What does this fold into?
Amino acid sequence: MPEITCREALNQALQEEMERDSSIFLLGEDVGQYGGSFKVSKGLLAKFGDKRVVDTPIAEAGIVGMAIGAAMAGLRPVAELMTINFAIVALDQIMNHAAVIRYMFGGQFAVPLTIRTPGGAGHQLGAQHSHSLEPLFLHCPGLRVIVPSVPADAKGLLKSALRSDDPVLFIEHEGLYGVKGEVPEGDYTLPLGLADIKRPGTDVSLIALSRMVYVCLEAAELLAKEGISAEVVDLRALNPLDMTTVLESVRRTHRAVTVEESWLTGGWGGEVAAQIMEQAFDSLDGPVLRVGGADVPMPYARKLEQAAIPNAATVVARVKELL
Amino acid sequence: MMNSKSERTALQPGELLAMYRSMVRIREFEEACPKLYSEGKMGGFLHLYSGQEAVAVGAAAAIGRDDYMIGAYREHGLLLAKGAAPGRVMAELFGRSTGVSKGKGGSMHLGDAGLRFMGGYGIVGGHLPLAVGIGYAIQYRESAEVVICFFGDGATNQGVFHEAMNMAALYHVPVVFVCENNGYGIGTSVSRASAVTELYKKSCAYETPGKKVDGMDVLAVYEAVRQAADNAREGGGPTYIEAITYRFRGHSISDPGTYRSEQEKKLWQERDPIPNFAASLIKQGVASAEELERLRAEEREVIAQAIRFAEESPEPALEELWTDVYAEASRAEH
It folds into this structure.
């Protein structure tokens, strides 16, 4: 299997799906001539033309709203928002429109829309370009929230998102675009909402997604040296939330730590922890612990930014509280 | 320019009568609602369209069945004008399973995919970019339909109004924006909310033609929308029409309307689009006063039947709470 970057895997998924289905088109700021702010849509304008790769003004609500209308009228738009912080500008369109339209009109309209947007910190971009806002969207029924970590998942999940008849928020991580991994060629799809065990273990379940999966794998490596066997569960999605896989893991390991880059307070870890305690309380040997981003607006200074993001050492320390 | 009552129209007597019938139907429907509301048959908000009928009917008569319409929350009249069965609209207001949105939307969220009525929306201005997207889809398919997007004067002060106007012009989409300027955003008059009070001027920033029409004159609206729709079909891009109109009732059922003087209301009631159109039909010899009265009685019966249909319809089954959230259930939801 060839090794490619997340960026290339996403580009492959877009290209293959656009070839397969002529109703798919891309729209967003700089997706065309510029090739995408993170170069995910590079080369697609030349290949598919400006009807299918549409550069838009800087108008996030307009972009998402236009995509919703096109989706209701039978197309399959893929809207790119430059960072997830900008998704807040379009939040009315996402939460008051895309997510509710199927229900509000009694199932008459589908909104087969994918919104791709990168989040995450680590590049000293400060408090308006660095947040991990996926918990905000977990809160909202009607919206699928997909958050891949490795390149193969990025490809397989994006292809499935583009085939879904639901609005999908597809959250990438700015720090992962250049990460390489083996990616199956051709028509490779993954079901939306199926978690994946990235490393099996027996003593504790580390539940994570996106870049924190890598942090947990590193932590698991460190723990292994001390004789502690950590299992790393990659949720890959917050909606659908695959609690089946999480609970199976926790029933084996009897301990769980959620690890997220998003703000700890009101993060998805609280939701997962609550569900574990409701459904697998008797299997637990201790409380479900949470690791999350510091509850502060993301600072600029490198040292402060690094201190706001969970790392392998913080995960290891939290795990040791359980043992 | 205020379009004068058009005598050039080539509408046939049958078409004129159908427009009259449609306006009467909306009025009868709307005027039946307050009593039903006070009897507890309906809940939530109830934004009535009485007074504005000429806008919906003139616009709907100017387009075809395959053309799209989308509106805000004062949309009973829009959907009725597009051809929905009054019983199914009333049933939606009653929250019944036979309602156009299966009882899940209510007064503000009527939708009818079959009629290409793409919904009523409750976030002021929020649906305007959706209209641009529907227009983009038409263009994408190289099809000849148009979208009529209705909204109120208040929406023109929202950010997305400007985003939608810009993108509609930029992509040259076949959208006719119809601003129903009834003078008030809830209780705040246009002059207290908008720096520019002649709202048709707001499209000039996007080099989109802006026209003002008399929204109390069904033929003036018809003519303006027909021209704009024809232009859009021929690749001429969007048009923005400001229809000057008035709602005879409050913003919603709970609004006593104290911010409007009795004199103002009286002046506008004299411009009621229905009796004025009736007088012109009689004058032109299209119909006699008796014929129009008979037609009105028929529509009163249509609405009585619609109410019976709604009353006899079942409430949604409790399982409906969980349906229509997603296209398909995932493993997690099984």
Observations:
- Chain A has two domains: 3-182, 196-320.
